[in-house]
Design a protein that fits this description.
355 residues; elongated; 9 helices; 32% helix; two-stranded parallel ribbon; 14 strands; six-stranded mixed sheet
Length: 355
């Protein structure tokens, strides 16, 4: 029989159960032994890994006998060192399950001064996850002062010891309604794989939404990642110094609002619109740049207005880069440009690829 003591939540047996020995009082307590086949997981906005098809063992809990707090991962490590044999629950008459922790108990344990910084961060993250577990259950959740203290303390630790943990720092700031600070923290995220999560957090920030949520995964994840690249895109700073000293000389275009035409796999044409004082415009065309090479102008077309240029570009398969997110963001030609129109026939102005 698998039992729990007072003020604990009963955990139903799932397959084989395993007995552990408390490091403090040497009494036996139980933890369900979970199978890992066909395990389905998703990640929550606080970076907690959520198991969809089984109950997971908490990172921290209390011994049901002495009430001492136990680090589950440390327990496993110590067990592996001793190579202790497993004791299935069906070989035992009765056993008590571990006692769950509350966020307040986590904070008391932190304040006891018994933990290293690494362990303090671990149990504070665990306490934050407990808070969010409850937050997920209701549409409107009011944080208690203890919960705010836990989140603020964790935030202080992360900013001091894990300052590159931008996603968790931003989510803590968002939960504390410090939206502007959360937004600034997210703009430190430059890794493509983290961009999908950063974009989803930013959309929650834009909505002033403080509640935890499950990150989108699968094919939609790439869409969010490219949307993040668009959001964080910064055009090239135009440098007009020493242009004449270059060979060939620099060809200046004052605009960096790129248009792109996707020709095929990793093949594109690019365009920039140069505005003139009489309100006419010239569209300059580029091909994909070679690695670390200067962008070269290959053709141009003149138009009586910017509106006409917009219309013609769209008719001929061009889209504004920032409205067309994809892996090509960041692949646009880089300056200082040079004029290569005399080396070709003019793919759009002469060769008939313009309608």
């Amino acid at each position: 029989m698998f039992l729990t003591k007072a003020n604990t939540t009963k955990i139903e047996p799932m397959g084989i159960m395993k007995a552990y020995i408390c490091q403090h009082c040497k009494s036996i307590f139980g933890i369900p032994k979970q199978g890992l086949s066909r395990l389905k997981t998703v990640k929550r906005s606080d970076q907690k890994l959520v198991f969809l098809n089984r109950i997971s063992t908490p990172d921290w809990f209390k011994c049901p006998h002495c009430e001492k707090i136990i680090d589950y991962h440390q327990l496993i490590l110590e067990e592996q060192k001793t190579n202790s044999d497993e004791a299935p629950f069906n070989d035992l008459n009765q056993i008590f399950c571990f006692n769950p922790l509350t966020p307040k108990e986590c904070l008391y344990f932190i304040n006891s001064g018994q933990l290293t910084v690494e362990k303090q961060i671990s149990i504070l993250k665990f306490a934050w996850h407990l808070i969010n577990n409850e937050w997920e259950k209701v549409s409107e959740y009011q944080l208690s002062q203890t919960e705010i203290d836990i989140m603020q303390l964790l935030l202080n630790f992360l900013q001091k010891f894990e300052d590159n943990n931008n996603l968790q720092i931003a989510d803590l700031l968002r939960a504390l309604a410090r939206f502007e600070e959360a937004s600034k923290e997210l703009f430190k995220v430059f890794i493509f794989e983290e961009g999908a999560k950063a974009e989803q957090l930013m959309r929650a920030i834009d909505l002033k939404d403080r509640s935890p949520f499950i990150f989108t995964s699968g094919y939609e994840e790439d869409d969010f990642a490219y949307a993040w690249k668009v959001r964080t895109y910064r055009p090239e700073v135009i440098d007009e110094s020493d242009g004449e000293a270059l060979s060939p000389p620099a060809f200046y275009i004052s605009n960096r609002e790129w248009w792109i035409k996707i020709l095929g796999m990793l093949s594109h044409n690019w365009a920039l619109i140069e505005r003139h004082k009489n309100e006419t415009v010239t569209v300059f065309f580029f091909q994909d740049k070679d690695i670390d090479s200067r962008g070269k102008v290959i053709d141009h077309l003149d138009f009586i207005s910017e509106a006409e240029a917009f219309q013609k570009l769209q008719k001929n398969g061009f889209d504004l880069l920032l409205k067309c997110p994809g892996p090509w963001i960041g692949m646009e030609p880089r300056g200082p440009f040079y004029d290569s129109r005399s080396q070709g026939k003019g793919i759009y102005s002469t060769e008939g690829y313009w309608i």
